[in-house]
């Protein structure tokens, strides 16, 4: 019976995946009643209050040694991907018998300012770890290092080998969900020289699927040692992620919540900010003097991979899909072509300079030669004149 239900869900998902949008991801999940409180009113801090809160947030960052960030659907709304429990969220409209208007696919969605700000903060050593409840893949696409993020609910672009637990980052969304077999085979080569050939599954969790033990373990560990837990765009209603900030609180750390709607941990927050996450993160980076780079790439940048650990289940390797690698190679080829063009320009400029210098030298030599010839001719003329004068004197 359970397998039949899963097959039906799979078919529903496949049929709904035509536009490959977040709303279709939601439709692909099995029926579930307890989706939390939806459609609660949004609240916005006044401009002056918001400015003061951002300054306080920056001070907390300066004082902290281990900052962890928990992200929810609210950080992707400015990319055109709807959230779930906001006034126009997927679950909110579902209760009203409506569907959200979506104008972007997962594949075409670009990382938001918040995604890029998190990358910038990590590179400046202000941020140690990100725990994401999102499946849109924008964290990895933004360039956030894969060994510093835990995607608790999966990633629409990732497949995992059921044998060696290696993860494959794809350039297109995986066509299954609920941890089903995708039909692909693991091509990772073992130290013995043989290929793993394990079967790949999607990483998307259905409502009652268990979280990955490794993802859960590393998330809880980081929250326990954190002295600051920043919650961005999440209502914190889904457990266990929703309760992770309290692990930081028990360690005498601080909780910061940035959300437009109330959360169940508002009363435990050391700082509560009601504003758009993009505005808050922009202000935070300005206060810290951290530059947010614009989004320039469409392939996954893997700065470090989980291969240097004995326990492969906890630290799987990351494999980049060939199509992603092709994109990278195309960009590298374009960069090489640009460099070649620059080199050619420089060489042409050098040749031109040498030619000009050579011509100038030739002109100088010609002038000197002409002067020499003029002097010689003048000397010859003078000499002839002197000879004539001498002959005239002799005749006299």
Automatic annotation (TrEMBL):
Residues 47-291 form the Deacetylase sirtuin-type domain. PROSITE patterns: SIRTUIN. Residues 320-354 form a coiled coil. The keyword Hydrolase does not apply. One of its GO terms (molecular function) is NAD+ binding. One of its GO terms (cellular component) is nucleus. Pfam families: SIR2. Its EC number is 2.3.1.286. One of its GO terms (biological process) is negative regulation of transcription by RNA polymerase II. Zn(2+) binds at residues 161, 164, 186, 196. It is an enzyme of class 2 (transferase). The active site is at 153 (proton acceptor). PANTHER family: NAD-DEPENDENT PROTEIN DEACYLASE SIRTUIN-5, MITOCHONDRIAL-RELATED, NAD-DEPENDENT PROTEIN DEACYLASE SIRTUIN-6. Belongs to the sirtuin family. Class IV subfamily. This is protein acetyllysine N-acetyltransferase. It comes from Dimorphilus gyrociliatus.
């Amino acid at each position: 019976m359970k397998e039949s239900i899963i097959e039906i869900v799979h078919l529903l998902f496949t049929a709904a995946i035509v536009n490959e949008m977040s709303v279709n991801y939601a439709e692909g999940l099995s029926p579930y009643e307890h989706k939390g409180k939806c459609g609660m009113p949004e609240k916005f801090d006044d401009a002056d209050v918001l400015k003061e809160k951002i300054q306080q947030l920056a001070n907390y960052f300066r004082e902290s040694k281990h900052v962890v960030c928990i992200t929810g659907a609210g950080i992707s709304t400015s990319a055109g991907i709807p959230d779930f429990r906001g006034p126009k969220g997927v679950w909110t409209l579902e209760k009203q018998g409506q569907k959200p208007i979506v104008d972007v696919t997962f594949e075409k969605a670009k990382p938001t300012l918040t995604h890029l700000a998190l990358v910038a903060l990590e590179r400046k050593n202000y941020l140690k770890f990100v725990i994401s409840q999102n499946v849109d893949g924008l964290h990895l696409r933004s360039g956030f290092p894969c060994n510093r993020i835990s995607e608790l609910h999966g990633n629409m672009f990732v497949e995992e080998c059921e044998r060696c637990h290696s993860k494959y980052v794809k350039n297109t969304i995986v066509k299954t969900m609920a941890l089903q077999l995708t039909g692909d085979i693991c091509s990772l080569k073992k130290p013995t020289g043989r290929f793993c050939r394990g079967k790949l599954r999607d990483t998307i969790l259905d409502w009652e699927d268990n979280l990955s033990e490794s993802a859960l373990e590393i998330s809880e560990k980081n929250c326990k040692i954190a002295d600051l837990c920043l919650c961005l765009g999440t209502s914190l209603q889904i457990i266990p992620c929703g309760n992770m900030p309290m692990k930081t609180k028990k360690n005498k750390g601080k909780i910061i919540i940035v959300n437009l709607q109330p959360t169940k941990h508002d009363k435990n927050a050391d700082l509560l900010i009601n504003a758009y996450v993009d505005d808050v993160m922009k202000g935070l980076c300005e206060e810290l003097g951290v530059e947010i780079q614009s989004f320039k790439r469409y392939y996954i940048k893997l700065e470090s991979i989980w291969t240097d650990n004995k326990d492969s289940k906890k630290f799987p390797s990351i494999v980049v899909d060939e199509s992603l690698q092709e994109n990278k190679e195309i960009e590298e080829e374009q960069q090489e072509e640009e460099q070649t063009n620059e080199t050619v320009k420089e060489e042409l400029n050098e040749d031109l300079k040498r030619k000009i210098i050579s011509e100038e030298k030739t002109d100088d030599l010609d002038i000197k030669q002409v002067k020499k010839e003029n002097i010689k001719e003048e000397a010859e003329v003078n000499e002839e004149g002197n000879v004539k004068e001498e002959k005239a004197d002799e005749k006299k």
